[in-house]
Amino acid sequence: MEDNEVWHYIIPFPLENEKRRLVWSILQSKVGKSLLMNMKIDKKIYQKDLIKNTAYSNKSIIEYLKRMVSADILEQGMEQVTTGKRKVRVRWYLPTNLGRWFILFLKPTEEIPPELVRETIEEIFQMYAQSIIEVCESFEIDVDVFCQILNKQRPKIKKST
Length: 161
Description:
58% helix; 3 strands; 7 helices; alpha+beta; Arc Repressor Mutant, subunit A; 2 domains
């Protein structure tokens, strides 16, 4: 297999089995993928806007939003807003770091600001670097091996761009 045939995405998944199953159920669902595609990566989005902008039933949308919160893909909150003469409470959602990664994974790259891509990739790299160090410590592996691999790949990447 050539390098060009490899899918160049690394997707983090929760360690807990239940959360991992939730993530899979969300990604395998048209409703779940549609909601993720309609999320803003770095801003709150209101439940009413998600309901308005997707073609699924309110019940299905709310069920998938609950799953996403349970899977730590989204944070949720409530805020009070004034509409006309009355105050109402509205529910909002904000992607977590994990949620941002899934949204980036699903959205076309032209829809994502380059600075946000850079920030998210840095976050995910830090998360993986921390995991690699923990595994190295657990199995008494010299972490310098991974530093050498990264340094070897660097000239190859510069030449191909």
